[in-house]
TrEMBL record:
One of its GO terms (cellular component) is plasma membrane. Belongs to the binding-protein-dependent transport system permease family. CysTW subfamily. Residues 82-289 form the ABC transmembrane type-1 domain. It is found in: Cell membrane. The chain crosses the membrane at residues 28-54, 86-107, 119-142, 162-190, 221-243, 263-288. One of its GO terms (biological process) is transmembrane transport. The keyword Transmembrane applies. Its main location: membrane. PROSITE patterns: ABC_TM1 (PS50928). It comes from Sulfitobacter sabulilitoris. This is ABC transporter permease. The keyword Membrane applies. Keywords: Cell membrane, Membrane, Transmembrane, Transmembrane helix, Transport.
Amino acid sequence: MAPHTPRRADGPPVGTHRASMMDRLSKGVFYLPIVFMMLFFALPMALTVVFSVFERTMFWMEPGFTLFAYENFIFSARLTNFLSSMYYSLISVAICFVLGFPIAVFLRKSVPQVAQHRVVLLFILPFMVSEIIRVFALRPVLQRNGLVNTTLQNLGLIDEPITALLYTHTGVIIGEVMSFLPFIVFSGFLAMEAVPKYIFEVCDDLGAGPVRRFVDVILPLAAPGIFAGCVFIFVNGLGVALLPNILGGAGAVNAGLIATQAIAALDFPLAMAVSAIMMTTLMTLLYIGHRLFDLTKILSPIN
């Protein structure tokens, strides 16, 4: 005889009511991150665009509509500095790709699967240290009497210290590579993790050389992950003000430093305009990448 299901006097069985509450709770937990992102990401980003056309006051800004902040950015040296920082960020992206993506391929191809995630963790560990500490620690390494110059002089490779390593655009590029290299390794590894290992064996059986295999097989399959990592490095190279502030010279200015200087000068609409331009750049790159590579495939298994 089936056990009797307890009922409330005027409603459905208690078990059904409890299951309904759990179902609603689970849906609420699912929507919680969406609400959080809307409140603390999407809404602030939209307000950034709105505030960028407000009129500047002595200490804040007031509602209105003016493009003076954008004109102030475009028709000044700030635009030149912004385009220059984009150029040097692209160099950093290229260096990170050349150094980092082969590591991701090596991890996927040659390291046993049980140890792959542990090795990737080694590249994530530096991010547990404060960014300002990581960047500032490069100064005694790159300075005129630092570790690099001293080592090269002791080996007899140079006669005089290399002064271009610090307080120049080269120093900023080195800082960006050291700061963001793990991202291309991590995103590249995620993309390669969706590639079955037998792909490498098939390429070997067909006689494909390393260059042909890399260009015709690995790059197309891992393109979404590579693009995502490159965009992250590029945008951070534009936006992290610490790097040109600590490692760059007088001419090393990026968008983040421009916005920081605008805030220090109490020119909040200009800071909002710079932020809006950076946000538009990011969204444009993501849209192009999604159209070209379908970024949703980063974690999808490849058949």
